[in-house]
Amino acid sequence: MSANPDIQLLPNAARRVSEIAQKLGKSALLRLSVEGGGCSGFQYRFGLADSIEADDVVAESGDAKLVVDSVSLDLVRGSAVDFVESLGGKSFQVTNPQAQAGCGCGSSFSV
């Protein structure tokens, strides 16, 4: 795993990205972006990426990569992305030290 001080892709998330990408015949590139909206002001969006853009920051774990654009990175700097399975379901989760408030579902936040 290569260390990136700006963002981390944790091993559970990397494994899940690799599994999804393999099933879909795509590269193991997970894009995290931040959009306005959600109950707390901003919300996280995840999706497989086709490529790494010039302004992306990249974090690697195993054979998977997490890519974050420079605008979104300002809102998630220092975060870690994990994949969690619980009674409430399975999901990618962001541990964001900049988030001052969040919602119950964990998918939106405010700074």
Describe what you observe in this structure.
It is a single chain. The chain has 111 residues and is an alpha+beta fold. Helices cover 19% and strands 43% of the residues. It has two helices and nine strands; from the N terminus they run βαββββαββββ. A six-stranded mixed beta sheet has the order 4-5-2-3-9-8. It has a three-stranded mixed beta sheet with strand order 1-6-7. A hairpin with a 5-residue loop joins strand 2 and strand 3 (42-48). The model has no long low-confidence stretch (mean pLDDT 86).
CATH topology: Hypothetical Protein Aq_1857, Chain: A
Alpha plus pi helix count: 2
Strand content: 35-45%
- The count of domains is 1
The overall pLDDT, averaged over residues, is 86
If strands are numbered along the chain, what order do they take across the biggest sheet?
A: 4-5-2-3-9-8
Which stretches are poorly predicted, pLDDT < 50 over at least 5 residues? none
- State the total count of DSSP E strands: 9
What series of H and E elements makes up the topology? EHEEEEHEEEE
From the spread of the alpha carbons, the general shape counts as: globular
CATH superfamily: HesB-like domain
Approximately how much helix is present in the residues? 10-25%
